Amino acid sequence: MKRAFSFLPFILFFCLLLFFPRQSLLGAKTGLMLWFFTLLPSMLPFLILSSLFVHLEVLEKLFGRGASFWRRAFGLSPQGTYALFMGIFCGYPMGAKVTADLYRGQRITRQEADYLLTFSCHPGPSFLSAYLCVEILGREDVTGWTYLVIYLSSFLCSLMFRPSRRRQSVPETPAVSAPFRENLKKETSASLSLGEALDASILNAFLSITKLGGYMILFSVLQSFLKTWLPAVPCIRYPVLGLMEITTGLSALSQSRLPFSLLYILTVSFTSFGGLCVAAQTKSMLADTDLSLIPYLKGKLCCLTITLALTFFLVEVVKVIV
Q: What's the structural domain count of the chain?
């Protein structure tokens, strides 16, 4: 009986696709266009290069010299710092993807992977500047403040989770599924040539980007249904849309008649959280490991709270954003 109920949401979603084809088609087109014109060209090269770095074991050379600084500043190893930087510069869900790759390859421990998931997943700088500030808010002048709020919130979030990580001093061996364990044996038995590593990296990158596209299309369809049926009450409609899927949710917010001060607080906060679609994408990046999504969700809720406080302070207290 419990298993039957677990399939109920999928059956309901299937019925919606059948009986509401117009909304389904519109949502699918929106999601596909976002994936093809935005996510694919912006993330695929980084996915390939990131996987190549992991395969060729060059992370120690890139970040090894500043190991003591990374440990003091972020509580991370050089390898973990690489995951953090990729999450910052490449955007959702690159931080989780690199964290999972490093964990599968036994470059970081389970404790460090869980810790990274709490604060290494961010919106990318290009998304913040071009999409959020220019296209959604129409205010290029708030880009610097937006960077400050988003990344300061993430750093403060890391400070809140860092003490619990320090208490876990005993390293653990990463647990991966049988297929990845076999691949790991093959890779460690003999060093991969550059060509072999590049081939493996391209396949890995296309698998990941295809997963992300599938989730984006499904959530865009769901977003299309919600936009049609949600009541035109701002306190209900916009939080639901913003927390469901970040891109289309921000677009819906931009079409509202909310004052700019409230619009800025809501859009930046929803961007910091990432939405349920990004959470599902993050979960897919953790496949074939024993890593849980719980640390990510805890970190995102913490980051959302801090972002709300910081944006409210900037807008309503010091009034540097008007």
A: 1
